[in-house]
Amino acid sequence: MSNPTDASGAHQPETQTPEPSHDSTTATPPATKRSSLPVAPMLAALAVGALVGGVAGGGVTAGVLASTNSSSVVQAQPAAITVNDAEDATVVTGVVASTMPSVVTLQVQGGGTAGNGSGVILSEDGYVLTNNHVATLEGATSDPAIRVTLSDGRIFDAELTGSDPIADLAVVKLEGASDLPPIEFADSDALNVGDRAIVIGAPLGLAGSVSDGIVSALNRSITVRSSAVPEEIAEQLQTETPEGDTFDFWDFDIPGQEDAPNNGGASASQTISLPVIQTDAAINPGNSGGALLDDQGRLIGIVVALASTGGQNGAAGSIGVGFSIPSNFAQRVANELIEDGTASHGLLGANVTDSINDAGSDVIGALVDSVTPGGAADLAGIRSGDVITTFNGVPITGAVDLTAQVRTLAAGDTAEVVFVRSGNAQSVTVTVGELQ
């Protein structure tokens, strides 16, 4: 049997006791019926693209996107929308024309390095949602200098409102902004495989770049390695260094500094698990934090990563396998970051492994190795040897899948859990604890 992990995809001490839970103070988007068809872990052979990686148990190893340079960044240019023949314009043309003003480009400096990425406007007064690894230069700085360029060419200074390394999301606030066009959120739980997916962002600093594709898969899980996880959380995400190639979020090249920088309060390297939408729309370094849109121009995801066939630090670019954080999850985290500066995440309190690696298991899922006494799983009646197959309606194929889904919940939220014990399926309601 492989080393146990908590429902975080990371190895957990069996003596861990979860912190008291509380209800989220913000409303989450409405839930809808999800597919019950399991998605087997088929992409494990893909190498990490762009600049980041990790070991994905039942999920996918992916590269988080960012264009970086230790001394400078690409200056964003106004993103003009050219329509030469309106009568022959496509759906994509209409989406871009209506939504481009809600997508921005960020230039970030701090911690001896710099980088650029993308973001989306949340409010008329200038709140912008992007990735944590963009806004903090993957933990290089807790006080970044941020410049945000709008599609019309206006440039604003911005301050970091709050960041969440567990979801890889951050909110920044533009100084002196008003009457900005907020992006419209769609219900990502209502998506279907095959739905149109349109990306707007700044790959390689080329602001206002557009690509078009479809939703390739839903309820996918990926792992990435982050050095931006605070030490107090990292203690709950203890993990051994994966065998083989490992990557960081950023390919820093800082004179006199051998390792990737961090802000002093971050762990050297931890694995985080993310639930994602997979798309074949082209995304590349610099698209991080940008918009994944439906055919009505509504936000269905925040671009976060791509898979690549390249080797270590091989940013080979798009191969048609890209990932975005679902809009429902992103919206909950953004609301909490604006209100409190931090966001909460669920904790199941169960050490789990991939059942597919256990010779005694006859069903795919997350095999419970042990539960934390008094934790969420224990209180719900989940026991060692159970195989969790569904969490909140989402099929679970392994530890990474379970972790990613648990983390989408705020502390104190409830979830329906289906597990198999001695060949019999059972269902229980779990009230998750809090990761902290």
Description:
The protein has helices at 91-99, 132-135, 231-234, 327-340, 376-380, 399-408, and strands spanning 5-6, 60-61, 63-64, 67-69, 103-110, 113-121, 127-130, 145-149, 155-164, 169-174, 196-201, 209-226, 270-279, 291-293, 299-306, 322-326, 346-347, 350-354, 366-371, 387-391, 394-395, 414-421, 424-431, 433-434. The protein is mostly beta strands.
Strand content: 25-35%
CATH homologous superfamily classification of the largest domain: Trypsin-like serine proteases
**Quick one: biggest sheet?**
7 strands, antiparallel
| Inertia-based shape | globular
**DSSP, total strands:** 24
| Overall mean confidence score, pLDDT | 77
CATH topology of the largest domain, by name, is Thrombin, subunit H
CATH second-level architecture of the largest domain: Beta Barrel
SSE string, helices as H and strands as E: EEEEHEEEHEEEEEHEEEEHEEEHEEHEEE
Helix content: 10-25%
Helix-strand makeup class: mainly beta
CATH class of the largest domain: Mainly Beta
- Tally of helical runs: 6
Spatial extent as radius of gyration: 20 Å
The residue ranges in which pLDDT falls below 50 over 5 or more consecutive positions are 8-59, 66-74, 238-268
Structurally, the number of domains stands at 3
Describe the structure concisely.
This protein has helices at 91-99, 132-135, 231-234, 327-340, 376-380, 399-408, and strands spanning 5-6, 60-61, 63-64, 67-69, 103-110, 113-121, 127-130, 145-149, 155-164, 169-174, 196-201, 209-226, 270-279, 291-293, 299-306, 322-326, 346-347, 350-354, 366-371, 387-391, 394-395, 414-421, 424-431, 433-434. With 436 residues, it is mainly β. Strand 6 and strand 7 (127-130) form a beta hairpin.
